[in-house]
Amino acid sequence: MTALLVIAAHPAETAYLPPDTDVVLTGIGMSRAATVTTRAIMERAPREEDRQDLTVVNLGSCGGLKPGADGIFEPSTVLNRDIDADLMRAMGSAPDDIIELREVGQAGDGSVLATGDSFVAGGPARDALIRRADLVDMEGFAIAVACRELGVALRMVKHVSDDAGDQALEWDDRVDASARALAQWLAAYRAGEASA
């Protein structure tokens, strides 16, 4: 039977998960997300062969960049929005800035998640991202990198809490709806796994 490890950034995002859920909180940002996710995986499955029986479920709130973005998304692609990949390629480097989540077992819904360490609340940063992505967060790419490098399956599930504009500044008031929706998703997912 596959063990589930839920990874989230903030305790408010996991407020409605059952107490028996194996949850690890990373804190905010990519460096912490990569480090904490790697440590959590290695503590649960130190041997490579054990990792085949582990699935990381990344639950989190996110900003919606496109008009009407609402509800639950299971991205197909996650990108590192902090790297100037075009400039690096022009200089002869090959940055690892895009992960197709099918590499870690998730077909996804076709959406693109852009991850970076800056908080997006409108302005030029948001305007630039609209051309590249549907959603924005601060941990997803790092969690995907850790899972890919360690050979662990990943389900990435994001709930739109705000529009990555003025609403983003109300995250504390809006995250409760995301936490409820993410808990419902996880309950349905666990029920499906149990009946499979």
Automatic annotation (TrEMBL):
One of its GO terms (molecular function) is adenosylhomocysteine nucleosidase activity. Pfam families: PNP_UDP_1. GO terms for biological process: L-methionine salvage from S-adenosylmethionine; nucleoside metabolic process. It comes from the Bacteria. Gene3D superfamilies: Nucleoside phosphorylase domain. One of its GO terms (cellular component) is cytosol. InterPro entries: Nucleoside_phosphorylase_d (IPR000845), Nucleoside_phosphorylase_sf (IPR035994). Signal peptide: none annotated. Residues 112-187 form the Nucleoside phosphorylase domain. PANTHER family: 5'-METHYLTHIOADENOSINE/S-ADENOSYLHOMOCYSTEINE NUCLEOSIDASE (PTHR46832), 5'-METHYLTHIOADENOSINE_S-ADENOSYLHOMOCYSTEINE NUCLEOSIDASE (PTHR46832:SF1). This is Nucleosidase. It comes from Kocuria coralli.
